Inverse folding.
């Protein structure tokens, strides 16, 4: 178990956010389009890094050990009742909206990768190789499509990719899966 300086964590989060947005981490100047930090895979990985940094920050600089309790066991169930559908969106945005009523609270959040893994375990998503890039991506299965999970083309910094999107039914499914995990 290790503790981290909160000030340094905040700085790391800001720098990571800048890189995700296509800017130099220190100077905040716009990066060239061909810069490695503008690559969609690098941006995706930086998103994971930022999520981990934010979790450590929310945990007051404490890096939990693998033996500590799961995210689901500490999730505040009352947030599920406050959620209302607004629009079709990605899993990260569904979870962001779910946590909005508790932004000032120090709570255990369920990450998008953890939720995606659960959806994969439940048969709603599967791994598939992108023939253009060779990378592994998550795509909806027939069961996932029936539940309201679909893919939509998106453009980020000139790079086109397929985003996995959740409609109203799929968002209700996410809430139900979280509830089932919490009450296990």
């Amino acid at each position: 178990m290790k503790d981290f300086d909160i000030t340094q964590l905040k700085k790391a989060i800001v720098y990571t956010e800048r890189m995700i947005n296509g800017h130099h981490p220190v100077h905040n100047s716009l990066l060239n389009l061909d810069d490695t930090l503008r690559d969609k895979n690098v941006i995706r990985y930086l998103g994971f890094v930022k999520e981990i940094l934010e979790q450590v920050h929310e945990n007051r600089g404490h890096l939990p050990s693998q033996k500590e309790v799961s995210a689901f066991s500490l999730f505040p169930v009352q947030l599920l009742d406050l959620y209302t559908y607004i629009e079709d969106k990605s899993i990260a945005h569904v979870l962001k909206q779910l946590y909005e009523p508790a932004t000032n609270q120090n709570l255990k959040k369920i990450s998008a990768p953890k939720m995606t893994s659960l959806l994969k375990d439940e048969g709603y998503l599967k791994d598939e190789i992108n023939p253009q890039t060779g990378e592994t991506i998550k795509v909806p299965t027939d069961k996932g499509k029936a539940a309201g999970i679909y893919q939509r083309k998106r453009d980020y910094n000139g790079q086109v990719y397929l985003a996995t999107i959740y409609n109203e039914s799929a968002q209700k499914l996410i809430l139900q899966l979280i509830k089932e995990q919490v009450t296990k």
